[in-house]
Amino acid sequence: MGKVTGFLEIDRQVHKYQPAADRIRHFREFTLPMSDSEVEKQAARCMDCGIPFCHGPNGCPVHNQIPDWNDLIYAGDWDAAIRNLHSTNNFPEWTGRICPAPCEEACTLNLEDIPVAIKTIEQAIADKAYETGYVRPYPAEKQTGRKVAVVGSGPAGMAAAQQLGRAGHEVHVYERESRPGGLMRYGIPDFKIEKHYIDRRVEQMQGEGVTFHCGVNVGVDKPVDELLAEYDAVLYCGGSEKPRPAGIPGVDLHGVHDAMPYLVQQNRRVANEDIQSVAWPSEPIVAGGKHVVVVGGGDTASDCVGTAFRQGAVRVTQLDIRPQPPEKEDKLTVWPYWATKMRTSSSQAEGAQREFQVATLEFVGEDGELTAVKCCEVDEKRKPVEGTEFFIRADLAFIAIGFAGVPEGGFAGNLGDRLEMAQDARRSHNVVANEVDYRTSVDKLFAAGDVRRGQSLVVWAIREGRQAARSIDEFLMGTTLLPR
Q1: What is residue 217's predicted lDDT score, i.e. its pLDDT?
Q2: Tens-place pLDDT, residues 87-128
Q3: Helix (H, G, I), strand (E, B) or coil at 110
Q4: Please, is 393 exposed, middle or buried when counting C-beta atoms within 10 Å of its C-beta (0-12, 13-18, 19+)?
Q5: Are 376 and 388 in contact (CB under 8 A)?
Q6: Claim: this prediction has a pTM higher than 0.90
Q7: Residue spans of the chain under pLDDT 70
Q8: What are the angstrom distances between the C-alpha of 445 and each of 230, 349, 370, 409?
Q9: Cα–Cα dist 180/267, whole Å
Q10: Facing residues of 222 across strands?
């Protein structure tokens, strides 16, 4: 805990943002860091709550020891706080930027709507780790002689590769795109996380002996069976990347796109790469001077909103089929779980028009070009309400309603019927592997991250990658010292 009476004496403060009028002019991060002394004051607010729900099953998936490093920061021991944070989280500079912070929802002080600023403190600790030189290679003292292949270099694959490399295994990471990072690099906009934070970790891991093979699409360029023959174990962390079909008439009109090709293109532009992606090929998509409609209410939809504003969109409208949530939740009913309440992302706050409890009936066009989106209000069962139809002008529309699991062909298709696949509650087509050992139905093949659990948060991917690494280490060596 921090200061005994800190939560009574110190108001909650989080880092501020650049004004919207300034930040939409660039694709860089726009948070304004707090000083060390301000961060230490916020850490002092961590109270002696008895049961730290923040790092329980409802709070932090990687079980960050939040009260411990809050107390260390309050005491001014940043070095110990850095070591503590990295003991549970390989990439806290990622989660400190893009995690929605379920830990803060589970904080006891959230009963009064003033949770400890955990996310802000975590980002400050992670950034301090770079300043102090803590983020450097930590190679294993001795090698085991075992070889492991990791397919996919998103958060799950990167976390697993780092853990396995530090355990002394020879680790090779295969990535079909030109650079490592998965959708951390190509899906999440730079204004949320700049990609040099990924590059630094890749450099660190290379110093620890991890080898990256980019531009290799396993299952297409390299058969999976060949990989299984070459390595003692293979971990599949390919992600959940198949867009969920919208089933909306007019989806084939020019100007209607799935969200991911749009986001990937812009990330590649910012990185001075060719905008054509292996997984997301598309014609150039730019929102400048256009009326944009985004279908969907989640993080991907919000990222489309922020990207469109930065490209110079005239107007951006976001459609959400869910009813508008309440401004404040019933704490005694919901806490410490994630609450359904009105939330406004930084991108939405830049000027988006939000429509709730609205269904997208049709994309309307002329001569094959999108001109409008036909909508209507829906009832509590999401059924259209007759007589409520209306049209929204649109030159460009993005569908951001989630992902449906592993695409046909590729890695999974290469294994045919040997790889057991199943549908989850969201009808996503995922690889079958449990959370105990992460083994699949194919010998020596493990799976972790979104490819196993379906689309989820970066913090869950890191957790699964770490746990899968422990299982693989135990599989190869008979025992393991890696944490779970």
Answers
A1: 94
A2: 999 999 999 999 999 999 999 999 999 999 999 999 999 999
A3: helix
A4: middle
A5: yes
A6: yes
A7: 1, 427
A8: 12, 44, 45, 17
A9: 13
A10: 218
